[in-house]
Amino acid sequence: MKVQTTLSIAALSLALSACVVKSFTPEESVSQMTLGEPIKYSKVDINANPLDKTVCDPFEEQPSPSMDQGIKASLHYRIAGMPAMTNSEDYVSFAKKSDQKLFFADMNVPTRMFDAGFTTQANDTLADDSGQRLIEYFGVKFETILKLSANDTEGDYELALLSDDGTTLKVVGGTAAAPTYKTVIANEGDHETKFGCASEVIKMTRDSQVPVQVTYFQGPRYHIANVLMWRKASQAGKDSQCGAKGNEMYFDPSSGAPKKAYNDLLARGWKVVQKENFFIPKSESYNPCVEGTNPVISNLRATEVLLTGVFLAWNTDIPATSQVKLVNKSTGQVIVTNSDNGLRTNHSVQVMDLQPDTVYTVQAASVSEDLGKSLSAIIEIKTQ
Question: Do residues 212 and 146 make contact, with C-beta atoms less than 8 angstroms apart?
């Protein structure tokens, strides 16, 4: 089976198809025989989160602890002709939605300068329709489930958001078919880093799973901040700093170092919600942004080259999935194969419908069972 897709070279260094294939349950992950070796199938569908469409922890270096933890997010940006917006929900409702998925380990971005933009797992910097890096006039919609960690105690929790610019936090209820949304924090507007407090407390027990949605927008460049905090409290909105704002009030923007106003919050019982408190929402099967064991790819080769096709093979030191990317050197057309989610050490992929008498660059891509990812060195082939 082949999958052929044309993609922009500028937007892609490791292209993986977004076509969804079967997800395998543990019971279905039974041994089979392929190329003389027993294999099993990945417990997750790696095609659901292609590397060229996935942005991992754009503000942090440490990934989520496990595949079921973290925050899923979508990116929305203003295009030509759109007015400047000063409400995060307007960006989500009216701005253009990027086809990239974002995954965060937590929501802890102290006030800092932001000019690097967003980078996918394939090391491509996201740009708007005009080719400009996204560093201003964009919105992000975060979705996660809040739970207590082993270090947290049960009780009533007051939430707050330190953000630059505006944010809204809603608790999601109802059903998947008919969700309801209750606004708990309204910290909107084009403003400096501002401490936005909740309007009510949330009761958290050891079994509580609280779905929340946070919308955030970044106005004019370059300051950015978004920190979710909580503390045990019987009432909400009573802290003396509720509504207080300033770009240098809570953190040093050049270094992110905390200042007196932030340390005062900590002294009054506030703390940053930790990675262990965020879980992937049920609408998303897994978090692909975890550190896994990267397979070592070796011996990528063309075993047979035809008039309009090629048979490719390679090896990995541990069982991993099989995909290849070919680029037509004359036209720039990119051809990407989908994965069957099989985990192998001996890999073989057939690609057809190539152009005759044409040179292609070829790379193999493999993902291990614990989501370690590798891309091979480039080889060239020429069809007959």
Answer: yes
Residue 32: CATH number of its domain: 2.60.40.10
Q: What are phi and psi of 143, to 5 degrees?
A: -135, 130
Whether residue 257 sits in one domain with residue 327: no
| Rounded (10°) CA dihedral 130, 135, 136, 139 | 100
CATH for 179? 2.60.120
What are the DSSP E strand ranges found in 198-296?
A: 202-204, 210-218, 223-232, 271-272, 278-279
Same domain, 253 and 329: no
| Residue 285 is assigned to a structural domain of this protein | no
Contact 125, 133 (CB under 8 A): yes
Q: Are residues 269 and 306 in the same domain?
A: no
Is the pTM higher than 0.90? The answer reads no
Q: In terms of domains, do 119 and 31 share one? A: no
Render each residue's pLDDT in the chain as its tens digit; 384 residues: 333 333 222 232 333 333 323 333 333 333 334 455 567 999 999 888 876 778 887 776 678 889 999 999 999 998 888 988 999 999 999 999 988 888 999 998 888 767 656 666 555 566 666 667 787 888 899 999 999 999 999 999 999 999 988 999 999 998 888 999 999 999 999 899 999 999 999 999 999 999 999 999 988 777 788 999 999 998 888 899 999 999 899 998 888 889 999 999 999 999 999 999 999 998 888 999 898 999 999 999 999 999 999 999 999 999 999 999 899 999 988 787 889 999 999 999 999 999 999 999 999 999 999 999 898 999 999 999
Shared domain check, 58 and 173:
yes
Tokens of 11: 């937007």
Range of the domain at 296: 9-48+290-382
Q: Are 372 and 289 in contact (CB under 8 A)?
A: no
Name every residue whose Cβ is closer than 8 Å to that of residue 229 and which is 6 or more positions away in sequence.
159, 160, 161, 162, 265, 270, 271, 272, 273
Token pair of 256 as six digits: 């992110």
DSSP assignment letter at 48: G
Residues 152, 18, single domain; the answer is: no
